[in-house]
Specification:
GO terms for molecular function: DNA-binding transcription factor activity; protein heterodimerization activity; transcription cis-regulatory region binding. InterPro entries: bZIP (IPR004827), bZIP_plant_GBF1 (IPR045314), bZIP_sf (IPR046347). Pfam families: bZIP_1. It is found in: Nucleus. With about 190 residues, this protein is mostly helical. It is about 65% helix and about 0% strand. It is built from 4 helices and no strands. About 15% of the residues have low confidence.
Amino acid sequence: MMSSETMLVSPFPSFEGGFTPWDSQELFSIFQSQEPVRSNSGSDESNRKPVNSNSGSDGPNRKPLHSNSGSDGPNREDSAAEERKRRRMISNRESARRSRMRKQKHIENLRNQLNQLRIQNRELTNRLRSFTYHSHLVDSDNVQLRSEAIILRRKLSEFRQILVFRQLQRQISSAWPCNSVTTSVNEQTPSLIT
């Protein structure tokens, strides 16, 4: 029979640092991962390269993804993919530059059109002011001419009345010879209308 003290004693030797062999195996297996490390941040992915660790202490169930047996197939694929990314990046930069140039040219054309329209607007405004000024002058002349026409119509009407009155006087004086004294008096009186 075993004593109770021997049962409580660990059959494993004590390890420095407090790690057991299975803990340290898991710890080393993290650093021996064969998968590339990739960032999903989207910033400057063309400069990042996959990280492969070939420390030589692979576990028994692990197979290396890239063997250094002389076949450059995966490396060529990676370099071809990197080249495609680089070309696409250069193409995107060129496309963005052309787009900026087109926008800049379009803005410059719009500015030129705006300046031309401002000049045309200024010319049309000046013409409108000139037309309005001349229109006011013509209106004032028209008002003056109408008032003069009214005055001339009144004078013409007065002249007609005077002529009619004189014709009536002549007819009356020729019909009545005894009124010759009154006609000579009327002929001597000056006209009241000037």
